[in-house]
Amino acid sequence: MKPLFRLPTALLPTILLSTSALSLALLAAPAHAAPPTDAQVDKLMQTMNYERMKREIVQQMNASTQGMAEAMAGTKLSPAQRQSLQRSMDKMMARADQLLAWENVAPIYRKVYRDTFQANEVQAMIDFYGTPEGRSILEKMPKAMGQTMQEMQPLMKKMFEQIQQDLQKDIRQITDEAPPAPPAPPVRVTVPEPPPVIVNQGQ
Asked: Which residues of 5-25 are buried (b: 16+ CB within 10 A; e: fewer)?
């Protein structure tokens, strides 16, 4: 059974490739470097070809949504109903494409990069991804990450099966244990009242 959703690998170059571009810049960074400007962040996303990454994200979202819709609908839909469903999905993907347009996500990227990186670090990424080697890595990284995730599927499957077995064993052990004895009722201590004081009025 195919998973209903896959992590968009187009997002991974933005996260993973930053390490290689920043390794030297971090060592030479001044103690009080200025944060990057909005223009620097915009230039970085342009250099990393954000529009291409956005298209890949939408394409993978479309594939995941189609798989989800087919799993939910099964064989109950007629050809006409499937065409209607496809038109609905096309509209959803068009909305997703508009939502991920740069003018909508730019404030998010600018804030995150301003809060995380320094200006010289962002410039180092711009310089690196502007080289032929940097552009080549950007092109190849989605394929490398996709293949890595595919190769890891057997390992992940084995790991989750083991987790499931361990959980089932622990739950059985917990539920089979005898319930703890109820707490003993509180002991009521009766303090005798002091004898009445008799006052001799004849004195």
From this structure: eeebbbebbbeebbeebbeeb
Q: Note the pLDDT tens digit of each residue in 122-133.
A: 999 999 999 999
Taking the whole predicted model, whether its pTM rises above 0.90 is answered as: no
Cα–Cα distance for residue pair 67/5, rounded to 1 Å: 8
How sure is the predictor about 189, in pLDDT bands with cuts at 50, 70 and 90? low
The answer to whether position 77 is within a domain reads: yes
Q: Which domain holds residue 67?
A: 36-130
The confidence band for 3, taking pLDDT boundaries of 50, 70 and 90, is very low
The domain tally of the chain equals 1
Rounded Cα gap, residues 63 and 4, in angstroms: 9
Residue 54 belongs to a domain:
yes
How far apart (Å, rounded) are the C-alpha atoms in residues 166 and 160? 10
How many degrees, rounded to 5, is the angle at CA 150 between CA 147 and CA 151? 85
In a domain, 195, yes or no: no
Flag whether 59 is in a domain: yes
